[in-house]
Protein 1
Amino acid sequence: MRRIIDTIIEKVIFSCGTLSVIFVILIFSFLFMESFAFFKDFDITKFVTGRYWYPDSEPALFGILSLIVGSFLVTLGACLIAVPVSIMTALYISEVVSKSVRDVLKSLVELMAAIPSVVIGFIGMIVLVPCVRKLFNVPTGLTAFSGSVMLAFMAMPTMVTISEDAIHSVPWQYKEGALALGATKWQTMRRIVLKTARPGIMAAIMLGIGRVVGETMTVMMITGNSSRIPHSIFEPVRTMTAVIAAEMGETVKGSMHYKALFSIGLVLFLITFLINFVADLFLGKNKNK
Amino acid sequence: MSKIEIKSFNLYYTNFHALKDISINIEDKRITTIIGPSGCGKSTLLRSINRINDTIEGVRTSGEINVYGENIYDNKIDVDILRRNVGMVFQRPNPFPISIYENVAFGLRVNRIGSNRWTISETVEKSLKAVLLWDNVKDRLHKSALSLTLEEQQRLCIARVIAVTPRIILLDEPCSSLDPVAIQKIEELMIQLKNRYTIIIVTHNMQQAARVSNDTAFMLFGKLVEFDKTEKIFTNPLKKETEDYVSGRFG
Ligand SMILES: Nc1ncnc2c1ncn2[C@@H]1O[C@H](COP(=O)(O)OP(=O)(O)O)[C@@H](O)[C@H]1O
Ligand SMILES: [Mg+2]
């Protein structure tokens, strides 16, 4: 009997694993096929370097450069805010406060991860956007900067919890050794703790970036949705994810516009794939050392 | 004149009274060992002398520990400077996961000793020579310290301490993870270092205490039972508990 249960469980686990691999392959081939069909009729260089996204004009223009720039700006801004703040927060939670406070803070941060992105977008709209408009004296508060700030909020829980785990798992013998040599608490953190935890922190950052790149709802609500190449972060932008989400519902299945959206999906997929690949390189290099 | 004067020192881990009214005077340029059964407070006492116990939550102390006539539990004391003067080697070798060179240079950098690259390199070399590790590692200084054997790692940890020129070195069972050959080499090293440093070693190995030390303190249940010359403790102790312990009747 136990044997039978064992084999059944083994089979179930195996099929689940196989299924998820099959799904990934299916999604990828689907994306690939639709994009391929699109690139047969529309030049791929014009797609990537074209500055204008006018799917309804005659002839239709499917240039996504402004969308790529938009996504890039918003993501970069979010990282510049989220990475330092997250590492500091993780250090604070792990190294400064007492054990009981640490548990409370950690659950709070994890709770933050559970806030739906619509809610974050909504808060951004009513709190941040008017502030940005007044503070920087710009015509609209719906800017790349606003998107970056709110996305930083979304990336932080992932970055904080995972880096905190990495920092916390640095053996205390290292810290004790450093302190015993006369290092201050801060020197110990900077020279030993952060160095030892670096692979984990890198992974945390990459996962956070992954979340930011793929985020849709928040950016759609507060970045202004203007597909022009911006001159500064205080101008409205439009991201790749926002275009797909906003326009997928109104296209005719099988049309050029429809296929173009899939091609954007493919570009996004390749970007996230690249980020993961770089993260793996980092982690692998650190492991071999 | 004693270097370390411990006066009615008590330590509590939250509510647990781990050190009970310890008083002891430790002399200069000698090796003192602290012996006693497991859990009697040897490590706790040793870790009080460089205040590394401060890093544990819930530790409270009373009484004084005077190092060179200065009470290190006084509020005015700069703990980082104290720890530079009172080096410590731990039970398990704990080299940092960075290069051999950087392990030794670490203490110099954080204490801003030796401002330029040349003096740092020189001190690293001198320290590694002092622990007889230089010839082994001089061709792989920039390899990770974790690639060394346990004995070499422990030597590296001693070199790291020597590099910042402490006056006192505390060693907490420095040989407990080493094999007999390595133990002998480390013991020889400690005897060599005696000329230049005041050394305190915690050990539960009585042969080791008898072999290397000048003075021996025997502890039991958080109290200091007896402190005297090593020969005296091992051949003609005053207290019955000491005699029972050194003759191997308990512990
Ligand atoms: N961090 C700690 N918290 C609470 N109790 C501790 C802690 N460290 C040690 N103790 C207790 O203090 C006593 C002495 O420990 P220790 O100094 O490590 O003994 P030894 O080194 O002689 O084996 C033991 O009973 C131990 O359980
Ligand atoms: Mg101990």
Protein 2
Amino acid sequence: MAATAIERLHRRSLGIRRALGPIAEARGMARGMLWTGAGITLVFVLLAIFAPVLSPYGFDQYQAGGRRFAQLAHPGHGHILGTTVQSTDVLSRIVWGTQTELEVVGLALAFGLVIGVPLGLIAGYFGGLFDRAAVLFMDAMFAFPPLLLAIVIAFLLGSSVSSGVLVAALAITITYVPQYFRVVRNHVISVREEPYVEAARALGAKPFTILRKYVFFNVVQNVPVIATLNAADAVLTLTALGFLGYGVQPTQGAEWGYDVSRAVSDAASGIWWTGLFPGLAIVLLVTGLTLVGEGLNETINPVLRKRSIRRVDFAAPSLEPSTEILEP
Amino acid sequence: MSGNGEVLVKVDGLKTYYSIRGSFLDRLVGRTGAAVRAVDDVSLELRKGEVLGLVGESGSGKTTLGRTLLGLVPATDGSVEFEGREITRLSEHDRRLMRRRMQIVFQDPHASLNPAMTIAQAVGHPLEIHGLAKGREEVRLRVADVLERVGLAPAEQYLDKYPSDLSGGQKQRAVIARAIILNPVLLVADEPVSMLDMSVRAKILELMLALKHDFDLTYLYITHDLATAKFFCDRIAIMYLGRIVEIGPSEAIYEDPKHPYTQALLRAIPEPDPRRTIPRDLPRGEVPDAARPPLGCSFHPRCPKAFEVCGWESRDLKELLERRWAGMEEAGFEDEQASVGSLEPLDDPATHARMPGGAVKAILDEARAEDPAEPFWTGVRRIESADGHVEIDWHEPVAPRLLPSGQVEVECHLYDEEALAEAEKRRRSGIPR
Ligand SMILES: Nc1ncnc2c1ncn2[C@@H]1O[C@H](COP(=O)(O)OP(=O)(O)OP(=O)(O)O)[C@@H](O)[C@H]1O
Ligand code: SF4
Ligand SMILES: [Mg+2]
């Protein structure tokens, strides 16, 4: 009994290793991008998770022990990255801001995937009227500038949904659903014609079984690539929303875009730290995510993929019994 | 070897048309586009235990016929009876049940296995779909069994492999295993070896014969290779442009091919002995567009023996002129083309054509004088010049019927007394040869 359980586990791990194979095999440029990006992203993820421990103060804290912080204090002296005009600590706002950014982006991606991927699967596989209507609708959404669409949604939801993070996530999601939909649908349409899908029909599989077992796995490979690239884009959209005042509200959490917008007036009077550090945080996170996305793209996307060429050793006898000559 | 007489599949007047989508505007105004007549009125019977070969050039509709039998594409018209039951209009539920009884092996083994499933999952999935095995371990045992049966032994070595780890021949064995694990009675094999290396082809065919024997299978074996069909099939059906033009026992077809198309196919088989040089080209021209097949006998534009009743028409004239010009000097060709003008009006199939320019008659007369044996001229009933035009009429097309002739059935006017008599009548009334 135990043996079979272990065996099964082993089999499953084989499957996972196979799925991650191309990533482990990535070489050169792609490998460098992937790991650098992953490193940067990981730092932000850790910052977000351990914000309560790492952050010296709360995101809107302007006093400690009954003493109000100095306004616009220079970096150093108890505030490593200085303070803002509202006396809040810049470093704390960046650390807590990381949490906001990642929460919103994570939620937005999750919504986008949960809505866009199934719709694309169904529309692509079944076609027909539903497909046409969905394509028309999604293309119409594509026609709007993403930021405008996000602002409209944020504006509409802002009054009825109390969580700022949720509002921002939904606003951003709207612009990504059509992307997942389109990519997945188009891929499904080509996979649908594959003989193995027809073979599944010939075996008597029901449509949803075919979608789940034969179409889905061959279509989702591209999704992580778009998802990470979208994540980078989502950070920019969120900060743009914050900059314009439609994002996460100052009472709801720290948000880098908002901080940058407040710092605009500081810059004129030579106060650089209130704008520079949140700006750097944005650039770094976006860069990290983009590197992961592009790195994944190069390793997973079969058109771009260049597998490393392994040396063939002719001297060693092959243990693979899989040549046709040895067949019974 | 051959069937025991009990009819397993009875196909009657089966038609499968693929509609080609017209332009967006066409659809907007509700005009339906043309249709590719991939299978055009096919009737045949498959007896239990036999191997029926379906042979024809690419595009003749072999795959479509096989897919229609299995209900993978809807039949446009006609019926398919399987084990005495009409199956072209089954409900989805009944059709899924029926799928246990009939399976298919596709041409491309690399594409017919899901790259994301292991061999164990792929071959075992039919059992899960139909709820025929309890639990994962039973599925695995049965898969191992069938893998060994198709020559993938020891099975443990293959169970957890992905298709990309296997060679073409091994993949095709796995595909066959997946097809037979449900214990079907009918197996449609669509060119199962044509994408494999020469060295494995014979082995896969031997395996199929062994399985047929062990599992009491009936095969519809689709191929364009008459040479392998000879050793593999009990009976052979020759398909051309969606129709069966000749069908009968393999030996009869090989020894005494009746239909001119069959004769051409047999001549085209590469000679094993390179010193014997016989003409081995297929007849002239290309396979015509199945959306607009030739009038009369579909094969007539390429048939060296075509005659009065075979369906000569305007498009044949276009082809004749184009062939003539292709063999001409540049200057002469340009002259003639200028005096004949556009050939496009000839694209609409018709037995009457009216062409501007009095010179056309002279050109046609010259063409005829140069090659009086060209079968095209048998179809011409009348050529007349009148007020600056030339009018050409062809004999009415007669559609050939699939009629018994000796051991086989053949769809050709040469074996149809009525058609021969009609042709004789036309010959006497037509313009003198
Ligand atoms: N899904 C489809 N939609 C439209 N036309 C199709 C479709 N499938 C096949 N056809 C057309 O139907 C005709 C018959 O095709 P089919 O694939 O049945 O021929 P075949 O004899 O199997 O050829 P091959 O030897 O190349 O496999 C061809 O003209 C082809 O272009
Ligand atoms: S009917 Fe027979 S002779 Fe006439 S074109 Fe067809 S194959 Fe040739
Ligand atoms: Mg085919």
